[in-house]
Design brief:
The chain has 268 residues and is α/β, with parallel strands linked by helices. It is built from five helices and eleven strands, in the order E-E-E-E-H-E-E-E-H-E-E-H-E-H-E-H.
Amino acid sequence: MLTAERAEIGVFGGSGFYSLLSDVREVPIETPYGAPSDRFAIGEIAGKRVAFLPRHGKAHQHPPHVINYRANLWAMKELGVARIIGPTACGSLDPSVAPGHMVVADQVVDRTTGRKDTFYDGPRTTHVSFAHPYCPQLRPIAIQALRSLGVETHENGTIVVIQGPRFSTKAESRWFSGNGWQVINMTQYPECYLARELEICYVNISLITDYDVGLEGMPGIEPVSHEEVIRVFAGNNHRVKDAIFKIIEAIPATRTCACGSALTGARL
């Protein structure tokens, strides 16, 4: 179903973020790829129209390996969204990246399997550059927003995305850490790449909730528990909300990055 609703900025996150919006309107959107994870909540922040979508659904009913990423991103594009903020709860692969810290990722490694990760299945071959996965205009804005809130912020970091829903083995986790990667997550790919195919700017904020299993046993690092993850997430959720507000407020009207021309020269 086409909608007359419009938004310029999109946010993937939980339903708790809706409290940031004023005059919220929920709308269903249909896409050629099926239904998105849930209805979109559309409202206003800092004078800008913003569309929120819980990537797992409001009841967290869609595990990471079955999220309809293509429908979610296509719907954002249909709403007119040109910039997306993608906060995620993540594990740390690096002892210096502690629970409660936030990472504004600059690289991503895909270790998923079988996910629908492109809009271009032919007949026209399309190769989109993804050397720099995250928007170079939005990243400094996110870093500044987090630091202005007193958040311990890492301005670079590589996210390795695993298939889920299972967590890594110790051997896998140690392999990831040994490669120099900082963050582990289950949803960043193909979400960030599909945004690039649609020429949408995308920035990630990784909220570190725990140390991954491969770091257990290192000095000062305790084995992770579900209760501790929930505690860290709940204690930092308001800071993620505040950061999103500040990022949206600071986003300029004009795009100066190359995200909006990602398809130029990409087609054979």
